[in-house]
């Protein structure tokens, strides 16, 4: 529970129960702290505490409502940060995070031992079998940061023949690098000034590193791309500086995939007009990608779980937040 900025407490709450026939209750095997949890933690986003926290989850189904058809007790499941029916026209178009019936998991709180998952049939994806413990961090990453980085890369149209620049060296940016690499991009420029994150970016497939940011970062991208800018830019921060850096680093006709949660960003219309770039982003429809991502993980083709460089018992959640806030950790995994 977040009581106030920088005041995280672990406490007993009532056990979740089935509230509607479409619900499931899961026992969390692993959960984690998101970069977006740091906005309220730092007081940049208002906190109406005590508020339940967490929207990333991997766990075992304990109970399902009478209307649940495909999800069964005992299955190991992963879901996204928005529960979605996966049947409405918006879901069918692949935008499950904008489902007409969506429920934000953050309002329920998955940094917990158990959680209620609404719209269980639409939201949850089961693994083919109970995964080995070593796969759990990667499967948990699929719940948000991997799916979000993946959407950033897809929205930026990363692929063969493309130079992709990635702004943001948090877990989402790093997994945007992984996604761009998997999608076949020719060249991937990771923007980071932190050595451990640079190293992980290279492991995930980055071909170039740029340490500058802002206008200098834009100049560095232009230098690396014959003065044109990148074809594809993944924006994984959400600030005015990073968004403008993304737009200015993209060549005319290119694509920006923006997945950093926007805070105080205002776009200058005339500059946007003359940039001739495509902008696409928003809350990632992680559910669209979950079946493919789970498959890649269980076949050990990708190892996104490497972004977790700190693992703690749930009881030490406050330290998980502190470590990320102080950038001592890229991402904290919590074991209930
Ligand atoms: Zn829907």
Provide a descriptive summary of the structure in words.
This protein is an alpha/beta fold. The protein is 30% helix and 23% strand. It is built from twelve helices and 17 strands. The protein has helices at 38-41, 89-92, 120-123, 136-142, 145-155, 171-182, 195-203, 214-224, 240-249, 269-275, 286-298, 317-325, and strands at 2-4, 7-8, 24-32, 57-64, 76-79, 82-83, 103-104, 114-117, 125-126, 163-167, 187-191, 208-210, 230-235, 250-258, 278-281, 310-313, 332-335. Strands 3, 4, 5, 8, 9, 16 and 17 form a seven-stranded mixed beta sheet that branches. A hairpin with a 2-residue loop joins strand 1 and strand 2. It is globular and about 60 Å long. Zinc ion binds at residues 84-85, 87-88, 90-91, 99-101.
List keywords for this structure.
336 residues, alpha/beta, six-stranded parallel beta sheet, 12 helices, 23% strand, binds zinc ion
Give me a quick take on this structure.
The protein has helices at residues 38-41, 89-92, 120-123, 136-142, 145-155, 171-182, 195-203, 214-224, 240-249, 269-275, 286-298, 317-325; strands at residues 2-4, 7-8, 24-32, 57-64, 76-79, 82-83, 103-104, 114-117, 125-126, 163-167, 187-191, 208-210, 230-235, 250-258, 278-281, 310-313, 332-335.
Q: Tell me which ligands are bound.
A: zinc ion
**What structural class should be given to the helix and strand makeup?**
alpha/beta
Low-confidence stretches: none
The shape is globular
End-to-end CA span: 14 Å
Topology, pairings included?
Layout: E1 2-4, E2 7-8, E3 24-32, H1 38-41, E4 57-64, E5 76-79, E6 82-83, H2 89-92, E7 103-104, E8 114-117, H3 120-123, E9 125-126, H4 136-142, H5 145-155, E10 163-167, H6 171-182, E11 187-191, H7 195-203, E12 208-210, H8 214-224, E13 230-235, H9 240-249, E14 250-258, H10 269-275, E15 278-281, H11 286-298, E16 310-313, H12 317-325, E17 332-335
Parallel strand pairs: 10-11, 10-13, 11-12, 13-14, 14-15, 16-17
Antiparallel strand pairs: 1-2, 3-4, 3-8, 3-17, 4-5, 5-9, 6-7
Helix pairs in contact: 5-6, 5-11, 8-9
The structure holds zinc ion.
């Amino acid at each position: 529970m977040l009581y106030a900025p920088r005041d995280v407490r672990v406490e007993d709450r009532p056990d979740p129960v089935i509230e509607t026939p479409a619900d499931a209750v899961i026992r969390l095997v692993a959960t984690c702290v998101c970069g977006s949890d740091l906005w309220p933690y730092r007081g940049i986003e208002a906190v109406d505490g005590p508020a339940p926290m967490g929207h990333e989850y991997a766990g075992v189904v304990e109970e399902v409502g009478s209307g649940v058809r495909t999800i069964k007790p005992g299955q190991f499941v992963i879901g996204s940060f928005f529960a979605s029916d996966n049947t409405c026209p918006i879901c069918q178009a692949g935008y499950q995070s904008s489902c007409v019936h969506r429920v934000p998991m953050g309002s329920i709180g998955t940094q917990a031992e158990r959680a209620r998952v609404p719209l269980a049939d639409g939201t949850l994806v089961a693994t083919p079998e109970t995964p080995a413990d070593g796969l759990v961090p990667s499967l948990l990453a699929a719940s948000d940061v991997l799916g979000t980085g993946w959407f950033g890369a897809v929205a930026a149209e990363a692929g063969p023949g493309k130079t992709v620049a990635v702004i943001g060296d948090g877990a989402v940016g790093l997994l945007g690098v992984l996604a761009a690499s998997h999608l076949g991009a020719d060249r991937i420029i990771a923007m980071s000034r932190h050595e451990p994150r640079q190293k992980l970016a290279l492991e995930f497939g980055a071909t170039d590193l740029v340490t500058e940011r802002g206008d200098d970062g834009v100049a560095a991208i232009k230098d690396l791309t014959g003065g044109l800018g990148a074809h594809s830019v993944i924006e994984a921060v959400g600030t005015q500086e990073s968004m403008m850096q993304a737009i200015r680093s993209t060549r005319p006709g290119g694509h920006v995939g923006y997945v950093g949660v926007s805070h105080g960003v205002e776009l200058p219309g005339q500059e946007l007009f003359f940039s001739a770039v495509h902008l696409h982003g928003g809350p990632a429809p992680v559910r669209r990608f979950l079946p493919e991502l789970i498959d890649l993980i269980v076949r050990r083709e990708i190892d996104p779980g490497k972004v977790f460089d700190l693992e703690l018992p749930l009881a030490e959640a406050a330290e998980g937040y502190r470590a990320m806030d102080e950038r001592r950790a890229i991402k904290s995994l919590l074991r209930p």
